[in-house]
Design brief:
The protein has three helices and four strands; from the N terminus they run H-E-E-H-H-E-E. The protein is α+β, with helices and mostly antiparallel strands. It has a two-stranded antiparallel sheet with strand order 1-2.
C-alpha cells in the first residue's frame, strides 16, 4: 500500500464520518470544523513530509509485515 497524501488522508476522514462531539454538538466534518481542522491540518503535514524526499527517512519505516514503506507515525513499535 502506498503512503497516503494529505489529500487522501483528509478524504479518508470525510468518508469515515467519525462520531465526534464537542459540548454535545455533533461535528459533521472534522476536516473543516473550527475545533478540529487545525489538528487535521497538523496530521496532514506529517503525511506531506513523509512523501517528500528530504524527509522520507525521518517519517517512514519499513513494515515488518509487508516489507513496504509505511508511515513511522502509524507504525507498530517494536523493540
Amino acid at each position: 500500500m502506498a503512503l497516503k497524501t494529505p489529500e487522501e488522508y483528509k478524504a479518508s476522514l470525510s468518508s469515515m464520518r467519525p462520531n465526534v462531539y464537542k459540548f454535545g454538538e455533533l461535528i459533521e466534518d472534522v476536516t473543516t470544523h473550527q475545533s478540529t481542522r487545525y489538528t487535521v491540518e497538523g496530521h496532514a503535514r506529517i503525511f506531506q513530509a513523509q512523501n517528500e524526499d528530504e524527509h522520507r527517512d525521518i517519517y517512514t519505516t519499513t513494515s515488518h509485515l509487508t516489507g513496504e514503506p509505511i508511515s513511522r507515525y502509524l507504525s507498530i513499535f517494536r523493540s
